[in-house]
Amino acid sequence: MKQKAAFFAISALPLAFGTTTYAQDIPINYSLFGTPGLLEMPSAHTAPEGTLATSLSYQEGLIRATATFQLTNRLSASARYSIVDVYDDPTTNILSDEFERSFDFHYRLNNEGAFLPAFAVGVRDMFTPGRFGSEYVVATKSIGDNLTVTGGIGWGAMGTRDGFSNPFSGLDERPVFDDADSDGQLASDYWFRGDAAAFGGLTYQFNERWGAVAEYSSIAYPEASGSPALDGTSPYNFGVTYRPRPGVQLSLASLYGSEVALSGTFTLNANNRPAMSGIDAAPAPIKARSAAERNEQTWDRTTAPEAGLRAALTALLEIEGLTLTGLEVTDTTARVRYTNGRYRSDAQAMGRVARMMTQVMPNSVQTFTVEPQKRGIPVSAVTFARSDLEDLENRPGAAAALYQRAEFADAGRVDSVPAAQTDDPRFSWGLGPYLTINPFGSNGSVALDTGLSLRGRYEFSPRLVASGAIVQSIVKADADDPTEATSNGIHKVRTNGSFYGDDGVPVLQNLTLSYFGRPGNNLYSRATVGYLERMYGGISTELLWKPVDSPFGLGGELNYIAQRNTDMAFGFDEFEYDVVTGHLSAYYDLGNGIHTQLDVGRYLAGDWGATVSIDREYDNGVRIGAYFTQTEISYDDFGDGSYNKGVRISIPQDFFTGQPTRRSYGTTIRTRSGDGGAQLEVDGRLYGIVRDAHTSDLKDTWGRFWR
Amino acid sequence: MTYNIKHIFWGVILSGLSACGSIGDDGVGAQVADLAVGIVTGRATQAAPAPALASQEEILSNPSNFMRVNIRDLDRWATMVPAATNGSRVTWVDSENITITVEGGIVVATRGMPRDLMGASATQTLAAIRAGGGEAQRTHEFLDDNDQIAQELLQCSIVSKGSDTVNRLGQSLDSQQYEEVCVGTGLQLTNIYWVNGAGRMLRSLQAVSPGAGYVQIDVF
User: Fold this and answer.
1) CA A26 to mean position of chain CA atoms
2) Which candidate in B31, B39, B74, B161 is best for mutational testing of the A interface (most A CBs within 10 A)?
3) N or C: which end of chain B has fewer CB within 10 A?
4) pLDDT tens digits along A578-594
5) What is the DSSP string of A304-361?
6) pLDDT tens per residue across span A333-387
7) CB A286 to CB B84 under 8 A?
8) In this structure, what are the phi and psi dihedrals at residue A530, rounded to the nearest 5 degrees?
9) In contact, B175 and B203? CB cutoff 8 Å
10) Could you report the per-residue pLDDT of A232-253, keeping only the tens digit for each?
11) Residue numbers of B between 25 and 64 with CB closer than 8 Å to A
12) Pick from A3, A319, A620: CB nearest B28
């Protein structure tokens, strides 16, 4: 029994990795706005870096859905959809179920100390009209393990109860939003202006699961045109929180003495993958050669004929969900081209190819070159010494050493490697359900669309592919057809989108012929012709320059397109609108997971401008980004939203399941999308395809090479 | 010692059930070996199906060909067979594509487990065991949640805990028991080894990774 005791004694292992930067035993409390806070008021606390919190709260007259992401240890950003009743002008009339989008920032100024509280500043609902627009300075102190105390000063909506004149002189006048002004502009003219008011509250955690919140709210919800039509009579709000398991917070609250609110907040951390390192099946071990075998100089083609190698490697890669597309073997070198349909990490796929090569390659082959192929074109070439694979397997430092010794280079020419015969059928098809959430429905509301999608694909060659999709919507409502195609002289290039395919019959989503090429060193090309997307058809061409080991890429796209008919059949005569669009794009991987893109060019409405995108990408594939587009079109003529902007979130499926797959879940939250700054949507843009197998992205997941 | 017998009994039952697909058909290692030998030489033959259940007789009559593993945190028992040898290291594979690589009985790598042990050094620990105790430095590498290699440098101390009897499959085997306590900056673990008079490791209890926890290994 002695062993048993010893066994259990050590079973509770302190196998902990990483450290937290400051002690915070109390779980972060999320407010009804989906941000760290009390109920309606913020607190100064922040979640650990990389935390994504999605929150849904409901009360009479107000539904809020929020995503909050902790960008750094101190800075967080939130995007929110609200459906809210709003006072009209005059206020006796109430506009019910108004759809609002809002964005927040929150910055913690210091770490909480033994005596010093944490301080934070923030802006809530930062774009016009800002129904909830507020700014605040707040302090929070933890007392013991269970209690936090919060106090702060708010402006804007948070300065509407018993406000006092602005402590910052010269900022006492806060402008009033005029409905004639354009929506969606940064409301910086309003920030920290006008009356300020004090707020505060407490959270108390009884045990791991149950907690309580009490606050004094400085939001009074005054009866004013454009303000939320909510009751703010009493300043006191109370709530109970329940955490059934880590990462879930359910709240029930009494608000302003008259309302009841319910909310649920779900958190995940991009740094803590639920599937940990994944549970992919083990790879084949390296087949190591003996010392004598390593010295062999020639490949005995009679015992291991090339056709045999080809057949064996095809079968071996198939076990790994990889397809051999090209093979070239000499006495001392082997070059393998393949496609990866299984692994999110191209480094992992590469490792598995290399392992399989050790199984079958003649002993005299000393050098392996692997070339990942995407859309029919090879996108990089990585060369290893076979002896490194043998010597480093399962050794500490193997990943770093192999990365150091491997050679990353441009792939060989498309036809430089003899093609492998594949048994893959040239024609493939699939039928499945689809679900899209369209945040720019015809009347500014979110439109849900679901139905069946039939997809087909025919490969004339790996590089020349025809593909199409027919979809049958089963819930889409029949909207009124557009009455005018232009407003303020700008063609409605996107805002008529909801009229497309709303007749209840199957429609042609897309039907294209695409061709990918390698016109030169470090160059990639694409040409796509046909019905490119729901609203436009024509021809789209693209050229990309991207050296394998460079963090920088340059691309150009030129499209000539015409607007399709709203019945989404084959015609183009309904609007008689055609346009030449195109962009010059610069891509830069800044390192530390920050990726940027700048597009400059001409947009769908013929407007000239630029789009800036910035993404935070975790090495495990979680991606959070934001973009905005500014064009020559004036705010007033732009249509709703003033300019195109939004945030996007994408999480790989293997983050949750641990099973290898290249699929991911993603969504984009935009402000209302207008007709200015709109881009063509076309499948197969080059940068996203090429970069996965280039040095920088390979390095991000190089830990998986040996997995 | 009823504990061991009971667990080994369940181990036999469970590994038998989980191996119903047969080791030969499912294991990547076996598939690869078969295909590689068969296809290149143009003699693609179906591998002889591995026994659905490795019986006690089979295990005992094929010394060095079977390893029984209990992955405690995954609540799994597995019977493993050798898949490949690289120098002094042998990689063992089970029927569900988990592999464990050992050097002289010390686990130096795993694949297919949460936060796999991607690589480790074992020579100093082996030397300390041979010397009857001593100090060893080990480097362990794990795959973390962000696909990065997390390296832990461990200072280990190996002490003899005296003689002990290993009871398994109806056999009672004399052994010397050693305990290894390792401490690193983010990690602390204790391994126990049962080594016979010839220096062969019969049984061990080893920490493999923060995700997979401890494995108990019986080498036959």
Assistant:
1) 29
2) B39
3) N
4) 999 999 999 999 999 99
5) S-HHHHHHHHHHHHHHTTEEEEEEEE-SSEEEEEEEESS-S-HHHHHHHHHHHHHHHS
6) 999 999 999 999 999 999 999 999 999 999 999 999 999 999 999 999 999 999 9
7) yes
8) 130, -155
9) yes
10) 899 999 999 999 988 999 999 9
11) 28-29, 31-33, 35-36, 39-42
12) A319
> Which two three-digit tokens encode residue A256?
């302003």
| Helices B28-40 and A346-360: angle between axes, nearest 10 degrees | 50
CA-based end-to-end distance of chain A: 37
Instruction: Give the containing element (helix H, strand E) for B58.
Output: helix B56-61
- Answer whether A111's CB lies under 8 Å from A21's CB: yes
Q: What are phi and psi of A283, to 5 degrees?
A: -80, 165
Domains of chain A from N-terminus onward: 51-269 (2.40.160.40), 291-423 (3.30.300), 436-690 (2.40.160)
What is the residue type of A344? Answer: R
Contact across the interface for A276 and B114, Cβ inside 8 Å: yes
Q: Is A400 helix (H, G, I), strand (E, B) or coil?
A: helix
Q: Which pLDDT band, with edges at 50, 70 and 90, does B18 fall under?
A: very low
Residue B23, pLDDT score: 28
Closest to A10 (Cα-Cα) out of B72, B130, B164, B30: B72
Instruction: Delineate the domains of chain B, giving CATH numbers in brackets.
Output: 2-219 (2.40.360.10)
Cβ within 8 Å of residue A113, ≥6 positions away: none
**CA geometry: angle A493, A437, A680, nearest 5 deg:** 30
Q: What pLDDT score was predicted for residue A23?
A: 38
**Segment of A159-173, A418-432, A518-532 carrying the highest mean pLDDT:** A518-532
The answer for residues whose C-beta is within 8 angstroms of residue A560's C-beta and 6 or more apart is A538, A539, A578, A579, A580
- Whether the Cβ atoms of residue A499 and residue A477 lie closer than 8 Å to each other: no
**What residue type is A327 in one-letter code?**
L
Expressed in angstroms, the distance from the first to the final Cα of chain B is 19
For residues A119 and A117, give the distance between their C-alpha atoms in angstroms, rounded to a whole number: 6
Token reading at A20? 């937290």
CB contact (8 A) between residue A288 and residue B87: yes
- Cβ-contact A245, A216 below 8 angstroms: no
Under DSSP, the state recorded for A235 is: -
CB A11: neighbour CB atoms within 10 A? 14
- What is d(CA B171, CA A77) in angstroms, rounded to the nearest whole number? 64
User: Using CB atoms, which residue from A17, A303, A395 is nearest to B41?
Assistant: A303
What is the tally of helices (H) and strands (E) in chain A? 10, 33
- The pLDDT tens digits of the residues spanning B116-140 come to 999 999 999 999 999 999 999 999 9
Q: Could you tell me which chain B residue has the CA closest to the CA of A618?
A: B146
Phi-psi label, residue A129: left if phi above 0, alpha if psi -120 to 50, beta otherwise: alpha
Asked if residue A94 lies in contact with residue A86, where contact means CB atoms within 8 angstroms, the answer is yes
ipTM of the complex: 0.85
* Tokens 């362990």 found at: B140
Whether chain A has a CB inside 8 Å of the CB on B187: the answer is: yes
With tokens 């979640």, the residue in question is A47
Residue A581's nearest CA partner among A510, A500, A676, A683 is A676
Arithmetic mean of pLDDT, B78-95? 94
Spatial distance between the Cα atoms of B95 and B81, rounded to a whole number of angstroms: 9
Strands A333-340, A367-374: pairing kind: parallel
Instruction: Quote the Cα angle for A340-A346-A350, to 5°.
Output: 80
Decide if A187 contacts A133 (C-beta within 8 A): yes
Greater confidence, A476 or A641? A476
Q: Please tell me what DSSP assigns to residue A8.
A: H
Which run of H or of E encompasses A96?
Answer: strand A94-108
Helices (H) and strands (E) in chain B, counts: 5, 12
| Interchain pair B36, A360: CB under 8 A | yes
